[in-house]
Amino acid sequence: xxxxxxxxxxxxxxxxxxxxxxxxxxxxxxxxxxxxxxxxxxxxxxxxxxxxxxxxxxxxxxxxxxxxxxxxxxxxxxxxxxxxxxxxxxxxxxxxxxxxxxxxxxxxxxxxxxxxxxxxxxxxxxxxxxxxxxxxxxxxxxxxxxxxxxxxxxxxxxxxxxxxxxxxxxxxxxxxxxxxxxxxxxxxxxxxxxxxxxxxxxxxxxxxxxxxxxxxxxxxxxxxxxxxxxxxxxxxxxxxxxxxxxxxxxxxxxxxxxxxxxxxxxxxxxxxxxxxxxxxxxxxxxxxxxxxxxxxxxxxxxxxxxxxxxxxxxxxxxxxxxxxxxxxxxxxxxxxxxxxxxxxxxxxxxxxxxxxxxxxxxxxxxxxxxxxxxxxxxxxxxxxxxxxxxxxxxxxxxxxxxxxxxxxxxxxxxxxxxxxxxxxxxxxxxxxxxxxxxxxxxxxxxxxxxxxxxxxxxxxxxxxxxxxxxxxxxxxxxxxxxxxxxxxxxxxxxxxxxxxxxxxxxxxxxxxxxxxxxxxxxxxxxxxxxxxxxxxxxxxxxxxxxxxxxxxxxxxxxxxxxxxxxxxxxxxxxxxxxxxxxxxxxxxxxxxxxxxxxxxxxxxxxxxxxxxxxxxxxxxxxxxxxxxxxxxxxxxxxxxxxxxxxxxxxxxxxxxxxxxxxxxxxxxxxxxxxxxxxxxxxxxxxxxxxxxxxxxxxxxxxxxxxxxxxxxxxxxxxxxxxxxxxxxxxxxxxxxxxxxxxxxxxxxxxxxxxxxxxxxxxxxxxxxxxxxxxxxxxxxxxxxxxxxxxxxxxxxxxxxxxxxxxxxxxxxxxxxxxxxxxxxxxxxxxxxxxxxxxxxxxxxxxxxxxxxxxxxxxxxxxxxxxxxxxxxxxxxxxxxxxxxxxx
Amino acid sequence: xxxxxxxxxxxxxxxxxxxxxxxxxxxxxxxxxxxxxxxxxxxxxxxxxxxxxxxxxxxxxxxxxxxxxxxxxxxxxxxxxxxxxxxxxxxxxxxxxxxxxxxxxxxxxxxxxxxxx
Lengths: 887, 117
Fold this sequence. Notes:
The complex is a heterodimer. Chain A is α+β, with helices and mostly antiparallel strands.
């Protein structure tokens, strides 16, 4: 080994630190060991050894050089790694410190940037958290992906509930499932047996239901399917909240029994709160299926668990085949043609996917606008800071180091903004939960989940990169030396171009949101401007849930109504009281009607009411009379029809005195098929929807069909609204009907529930639109203000040379509006391209609605003009002399 | 030099290295010569074994190193004691002094009379 001559260190005189790190570790170690051997050889030679003998003696004394070299290299490599890490960490801390200092110096910018980011990120986090809880989080049941729902489909391909005989055949014919269960509900039902009578959501399920769901009881024991016998009333399983609030949380379930529909049910088990299926159920009645339905009475939903190794597709094809075989075998008495199998999670929340993704799109736009806004602000700042940057560059900071410093600042801003956004999102969610009824959005409890935190972090980093991009791109185009010389005078050039693009992007994005919001507002106005045919203002409602055991027959119900109505009418502030089976917009029954002397079947909505109902709801009497005391049970059976029914089936002739019969649902309940005489015509009412056609309606008197008004609604026309009379109403109802659960509300709220969805969409998208508009305006203002500031001198010169200040200001505005107009054009194109996404949410307004588009253009252009004009006005105040002196 | 070298006890090499460089920076060869001279070659130690020990002490932060040139113009890595190294050496010296004193008292003492159990 000739170690003496080779490996001479170049420039070895400098004992500089840091040299160490520029040589590979192993090379460094080898040199050291070689140097040892060389010195040893030198020593031995000086003591008289021959060079060859000296070398081999030195190597012998040294030991296993290769092993030592390896060992030393490993140690040194470890050390180098930890030193590099420490150094990197040190510079990160330096960067962060420096960033905090810089941001702290420019407090106004920092606060504005954090707020902007907070808004943008917050909007996204809020939407994402809803998506996370509805669409991404698995259902809280064992192996939820194996849970499916089964439905029937009719010839039109419409999904319909399941007829019981078909369900029984599915059970015996299918092999794809571990278990199937049929259920109905939940239905609002009076429940007795607790501390007070209450009305709760009750679902009827077959014995296999809890096997399918693999439910575990919190208290008690879930009954086995084999314990549920045909003919028994069944057993009750209750939710944790029902157990706590109604049953007082008694652990000894054996002592508990609740009563529903006149039957007692032993309470066998309590389910934990997370078990929420069918959604909102308080009590599950486990019952043997009520054998004997027809194949056209579709009363059940079916849930099933896929067997191991069976895919959804396999189950789908098996069930389609079974459905086809049944349709063939029972042709004529079956109306379903096939069977659909859907994953339970899709069946429950699939319909939220599109609206939620729309919302996510809208919030993403807000964030993009926020980022473009910040990008232009950061760009402006980077020009202001170019001297500082240039000084640091000349002091030896490399370009990557400088970029890293800028990136660190952006990340700092973004992370703080993200944290602010997270807080904002939670505040918004609290408001949303209060504003949106649970059934509208299905908002579950939202908490700080890991996916949510990751999403926030990701957004913050992406945002930092987005708004940091523009200045980073720019800092490539000039060397430090040029920057140091300073004197960038024009607001034009490459920076101007980047700005124009940013402004155009902001404006375009904001425009898309404004159009969407405008369309939703227009659509909502259309909906609420429709005359529904009734007046729900100041109408207080009392929903009754009359237990069958307390009021077992017509006489008892008539007695109840006869005592309540006049008592309530006596309350000061109440002017008219009536009862109806279903308020408009809250469901109801309908069916075919025979008209005496007409061959074809009429079709109508079917409501039970008394005379007072029409008065209370201000539904006008058009002809004939309303129901009164003479319409007793046993007297001539009568009906009132509405103007729509009269027009459709009697044309110009007078329906009063004509007779109808076979009110289908009626004969099903009463088994009678008497002719019923029409005694009056009332104004047409939209029973089902504000946007669909008026529904022809037949009203029959509560005194002759009290059974149908059992769970009816008392309607109280008041002078001052609910607040003034609620207490008196409550005490009267409790006094006269102590065993009847009831709820006091307003007709406006009940009938207006249908408007919650469009109102909610309008508010959220509208809110996003306003935020985007404000951000765009701030962005435009900032860019123009900055360019006016930069060009002070140039403008001063022009004014000194005789230019009219107003003219210069106009030019500033004109220049600034070019990208705005470009943005509007882009936004217009984008809105038209994206129109099919909002189409589904619109009523009687086309997605290309010219009024909305024109309105958005005017609004956006107006706001942009204002944002430009504010700083432009300053031009007119430029004093040419001081402007020229300034530099 | 007439006696056979004794095997090195664990940990002693580290103390000797620290002690060697406590007077000023030194390269590995210098350390090995200083140990051999100071101990009259008492310890049986391969010269190469010094280097992993040096590297380990450096990793622990007790030593610092840098390349330099010897008086004969040869490049060599010089090791210097850090502040932490100096403190480490002091406590090692105290420990070893007590150890050696105790050992020599034991070795000089009269053995207790046999018997007992």
